[in-house]
Amino acid sequence: RHALLAEAVYDDLLPGERRRLHHKLMQALIDGGVQGTAAELARHARAAGDLLAAVEASKRAGDDAMAIGGPTEAVRNYEAALEILADAELRARSDVDAVEVVTSYSAALVAAGDLDKALRFGNEVLNSMPATITDFNKARLLVSLAGTALLVDSETDPLALTREALDLLGDEPTPTRARALHWLARVLGFAEHNQIAQAQDAAVEALGLAEQLNLPRLASDIHTTLAGLEQNEGDDIDPTLVRAAAAAAKAGAATAELRALTILGRVRMERGEFAAAEEAFDHAVRRAIATGRTWAPYGFDARFHRIQVAFVSGDWAKADELLAQPRVGAQTLQLSMLAAAELQLVVGRGAEPSASLAASARERWQLDGMCAMTAAPEFITLAGRAGRMDEVESTYSETLGVLEPAWGRLFAGRVRLAAVTVTALSTGLDLLGAPQRAARLALIQEVAEPAFEAAARAHDLLWAWGPEGIAWERRLKFEVARCKWLGGEPGDPVDLERLGRQDVEGFTAWPHVLEGAASRLRLGEVLVSLGVQEGKDLIAQARETGERLAARWLSAGPVRRDELVLTRRELEVLRLVAAGRSNGEIAKQLFIATKTASVHVSNILAKLGAAGRTEAAAIAREQGLLGG
Q1: Would you place residue 617 in the very low, low, confident or very high pLDDT band (cuts 50, 70, 90)?
Q2: What pTM value is reported for the model?
Q3: 584 close to 546: Cβ distance less than 8 angstroms
Q4: I want to staple 419 with a disulfide (CB 3.0 to 4.6 A). Which of 218, 282, 476, 478 is the partner?
Q5: DSSP state of 564
């Protein structure tokens, strides 16, 4: 009743009466006659027509909201201040630092998770700067935009922005220079052509300035950057990151704390220490919620990577649970990332994603390469299973079009992308005619060569190449060799077996449950075709994992009779045997040697337990192996 009564009284007031009452309330808040917040003061000042008081109060209200972990509310208050400061005459009369409002607004957008808007706003501000702006203020705007650009993949170059800012700032020790040096260190240390020594020099100088100027929050973040740079030397950086996170928490530097915890989790995840990674990510998620940064960079990253750990470690029930958590306040980018994570589970289970899920998983590739790197392999896998090779190739090319400009041509993730693509291109390879096989094998080599270059480069960067990278590199080597084998190219079966065993070992050292089972399945197929009995055990292990995960494509396995597996090449030979073709005729039709055709026939008879070609054909018809 109180609210209704207040509204009725307010509506009954004349405009002049309202304005006078708002002014009295504004003055009472300023004088301390009544208690209230800066946001309340801003509202009354604006309604009273005192825009100078309103802009100052709106800016203070934004600061207050950020201090208590309310970035969304801060965005609204800073927007109110910016609307008033858009008036050049009023801006000149105000004591409020307009550049500080701009940079604070950008920081609030980032903390709220709206990176797209923060980037667009920063570029708009730079493009509309007045010619009279001072070098110092221009540098502040450049540093602000560079900090946003570091968090997204876009055409905005944080390195160019940072260097321009440093040129404008000179050597005077200021917080802006300290931040600019920190951004420079991060860009140099983790870009494609990384320059570790220069990055460390910039970070050390930034840390010295931060300590000299008593900026503990910035100093905490720089310590995290230095820990990441030290990782290149192969050191155990866990203790350093743990200390950095603790120091940041003590200093009240929420972003620095979340960044240290998230990097810690990622390092552990890449080493295959999944339980320890879960611990770091869970800690980061709790701190993100507590500090109002659930959807901010690093806060959301921790949530996303926690889902990844559950997926990779085979705890798919946990992944489902995490994906089902409320998404109130999430921006389109975060929703797209979560869709990409969900897509992994859908494809892992052998199902088709809904149209809405597929669309969401593609929506923000241009803004965050990690979204593309998560979703693209799943789209490629789906297309490969269905035999849509044009789609495999186009999705692979589209993904490179997104990632190469952002991460460089030899980005480490290219190895995994290539491995998945080559696996997809292997589908039906052994059933193609000679010209089509040659074209497919040429495409496979085209995909693999730059990925092997990327792997060779990554071996020189210890921070970029741990057990996870090694596992995918081994997968790529085995898949390329397996494709050549399926395509009928001459090769050493012993070498193929060796590469297959290395693939299994790779996904044992980095224990990705689903990919480890896939390694065993494909090695098992090869071994059975080579007459090695161990192959049946590996296939059985893969099927058991598939049944536990409810991964239908894995539990079904290849075509089999009891526990005996026929490769696609053997199925093709079997169909020709059933058609009454001789070994010579089979060899001629499949463009293989007569001796090779004879070996295939012998393997088929042994696997089917058939005494001769006629019985093999009868068994094949009985088991439905001749259809399709």
Answers
A1: confident
A2: 0.84
A3: no
A4: 476
A5: E
